[in-house]
Amino acid sequence: MEPVCTDCGIKFQREPGYFLGSIYFNYGLTALLVIVVYFAIFFGTNLPQPQVLWSLTAVCVLFPIWFFRYARSLWVGMDRYFDRTGNPPQKDDQER
Questions:
Q1: Which of 3, 9, 32, 46 is the residue whose CA sits 20 to 30 A from 79?
Q2: DSSP letter string, 30-89
Q3: pTM for the whole thing?
């Protein structure tokens, strides 16, 4: 991951553990997706339970890996929206 944005100069790594909040986006959307897929399979098809279990397990493993960077960008966007004064772009950061 880049240390600063090439367009606006915002620092992405503000302090250690900054992106821990993105885990909530990733976990929450994964849980919501699994619930929706489960009910869609349960009411929409006649699949055997072991096949449903393996399908949902695949969703639980693969979706968070794919959604990882999007969760981070949502976290940065939320942080910038609610804390507009917390990390103004620095002149030094834009020159690098």
A1: 32
A2: HHHHHHHHHHHHHHH----HHHHHHHHHHHHHHHHHHHHHHHHHHHHHHHHHH-TTSSPP
A3: 0.71
